[in-house]
Amino acid sequence: MSLLKFDYSSLTPGKKLAVKYFIVAIILFGAQLLFGLIAGAQYLVPGLFYNKLDFNVVRMVHINAMVIWMLYGFIGSVYWLIEDEAQTELVGYKLGNLAFWIFTLAVAVVVVVYLFIQIGPGNQTSLWLINEGREYIEAPRWADIGIVVCVLIFFYNVAATFMKGRWTGIAGVLVLDLVALAGLYLAGMFYTPNISVDQYWWWWVIHLWVEATWEVLVGCIMAWSLMQVLGTPRKIVQTWLYIEVALMFGSGILGLGHHYFWIGTPEYWLTIGGFFSALEPVPLVAMVVHAVYDAGKHDFKNRNHPAMAWLIAHAFGNFFGAGVWGFMHTLPQINLYTHGTQWSASHGHLAFFGAYASINIAMWYIAVQKLRGDVPFDSRLPHAWRWKSALALLNIGVLGMTMALLISGYEQSFIERAIEGSTWAGYFKAQTAKWFMQGMWWRQVFGYATALGYVLLVWDLMTIGKDVPQSVIEADRKERLHGQKTRG
Ligand code: HEM
Ligand code: HEM
Ligand SMILES: [Fe+2]
Predict the structure, then answer these.
(1) What is the mean pLDDT of residues 291-307?
(2) Cβ-contact 349, 439 below 8 angstroms
(3) Cα–Cα distance, 33 to 336 (Å, whole number)
(4) Burial of 487 (0-12, 13-18, 19+ CB in 10 A)
(5) Of all residues in the chain, what percent are helix, strand and coil, respectively (each to 5)?
(6) What confidence category does residue 231 fall into, taking pLDDT thresholds of 50, 70 and 90?
(7) What is the CA(439)–ligand 2 centre distance, in A?
(8) How many domains are there within the chain?
């Protein structure tokens, strides 16, 4: 930290922990992109790393790294905001710190096993020591248990801190949400040899995490960030938060049914899943309205332009990636053709990036501003082209990948499902179709743009605000004093 001239030692305990979580998140984000690029390249050069690092393993590392870095980012974000929100110091810092190291060590061991042992026979030993074979949460059982312990410690830190300090609306929603988030993880640890039953429970983690508990969590982070970055009054953000949460749980819980169309569950799920998941975009619209409404208020001062830009990117990314791209294939009549094609990958990329990568990045900018001694990150910021180019490259890169995958998915649904009637031969016909392959090439090109955006982002986070002139710092201080006087 001293190398980067960051003001780390003056941070409160919660914020110190947060910075640690953010650093691991940023590193794993890089690993995710690296493995994404390898997986993408394997579509174009199928023999690449054959029998050394096969596609299934590369893909697993790509998406597991994503889930884990986002969890790190969320945990870090909560540690970052909790002391301000509770107006007291974090309770149980030492325990929290211990959990951080256990968690990080476990992740490191799991990655090494993924890369060097990769897979094992279908028995209990593989399940406990190598991987569980459940997409997105493949971590072996021993690591699962470790994760649960660390999450429980995190929960203790959060609940105990709010209990000691101040309870707010955001605090209440956050604590209840963390109970659900931790509890649902247990559904993914349950073992049964019946694949339909297995998938039934596995979706409780995957869908209910990303479409309910993670959405609520980012709702809390967004509410807090808007107060922080724009000075939006608490009354406004909390009212919105309650509305969003009610709508999110109202549609998201039974919306789960859109994953029960074709896995051997009863037919009534077609109706339930189709109907409720079609309502899922409604809270996402509310979130866009909320953010845009606040950003448009002229008397709110914005001292952190990059964070605000990423918060806006989050509101729109969430709406388009989850809401619009999700809605496109959520009715069973359409999903019959698109299920499990590149169409799903198109939605998956835009949704995870738009909804969750973006808000994490916003939090990193909020944190880094503090680490720079709270200098203004506004139009007077030197080298602003860096954060702007990182923002542009990352968003254009992911949007480009999304469109390329959508074209491939369209071609795939058309040839494999509509024309060939879902046969094995039809699958291969689609995989080698001209437009499908063109989409795969374009995905790779935009993948490189995304990766370049990431490199710029990391460089910017390490250097932003380092050389803000003293005159600007002085002027900013005066403005804030003056602002407080007129408001008070
Ligand atoms: C931020 C929220 C969301 C994220 C991160 C997300 C992400 C994903 C991902 C990664 C998949 C692929 C899962 C797999 O590997 O099989 C998926 C599937 C799906 N998502 Fe979402 N999603 C979100 C919200 C939504 C919403 C709001 C809708 C509906 C309006 C939706 C509709 C669907 C459907 C129908 C599928 C199944 C695709 C198939 O049959 O292959 N998603 N989602
Ligand atoms: C460097 C850029 C990236 C490349 C080249 C890339 C490539 C890939 C590839 C090849 C797959 C496997 C798809 C398949 O099974 O056919 C994949 C899956 C996935 N990637 Fe990426 N990716 C990149 C960045 C990202 C980012 C930034 C995110 C989100 C933040 C993301 C989220 C996902 C998800 C959720 C899946 C699973 C999708 C599904 O199951 O349908 N990727 N990616
Ligand atoms: Fe879902």
Answers:
(1) 82
(2) no
(3) 30
(4) exposed
(5) 80, 0, 20
(6) confident
(7) 14
(8) 1
Q: Evaluate whether residue 220 is within a structural domain.
A: no
The rounded radius of gyration (Å) of the Cα atoms in the chain is: 23
Quick one: angle between helices 169-185 and 214-230, nearest 10? 150
Ligand 1 binding pocket includes 213 (Cβ within 6 Å): no
pLDDT at residue 482 in the model: 81
Atom of ligand 2 nearest to the CA of 357: 30
The pLDDT value recorded for residue 293 is 82
Per-residue confidence at 488, pLDDT binned at 50, 70, 90? very low
Residue 471: which pLDDT band, with cuts at 50, 70 and 90?
A: very high
The CA distance from 487 to 485, in Å, is 5
Whether 121 is covered by a domain: the verdict is yes
State in Å: Cα 164 to ligand 2 middle: 42
Residue 238 neighbours by CB under 8 Å, 6+ apart: 168, 169, 170, 223
Contacts 24+ apart (CB under 8 A), 34-43: 34/451, 35/59, 35/61, 35/62, 35/65, 36/62, 36/447, 37/444, 37/447, 37/448, 37/451, 40/440, 40/443, 40/444, 40/447, 41/444, 43/440, 43/443, 43/444
The whole-number average pLDDT for the span 256-282 is 96
Top mutation candidate among 258, 405, 412 for ligand 1, by most atoms within 8 Å of CB: 258
What distance in Å separates the CA atoms of residue 362 and residue 368, rounded to the nearest whole number?
10
Structural domain containing residue 42 = 1-167
pLDDT tier for residue 480 given thresholds of 50, 70 and 90: confident
Contacts of 454 (CB under 8 A, 6+ apart): 29, 30, 33, 390, 394
In a domain, 3, yes or no: yes
What's 64's domain CATH number?
Answer: 1.20.210.10
For 183, the enclosing helix (H) or strand (E) is helix 169-185
Average pLDDT over residues 280-300: 83
First to last CA, the chain: 37
In 167-210, which ranges are E strands? none
CA of 480 to the centre of ligand 2 (A): 43
**92 domain residue, yes or no:** yes
Q: What is the pTM of this model?
A: 0.97
- Quick check: 257 and 280 in contact, CB under 8 A? no
Contact 465, 369 (CB under 8 A): yes
pLDDT in tens, 2-57: 668 898 999 999 999 999 999 999 999 999 999 999 999 999 999 999 999 999 99
Highest mean pLDDT among 121-125, 231-235, 358-362: 358-362
Paired strand residues for 304: 377
pLDDT exceeds cutoff 70 at 374: yes
Q: Cβ of 195: how many Cβ atoms within 10 Å?
A: 11
Q: Is a pLDDT exceeding 80 seen at residue 233?
A: yes
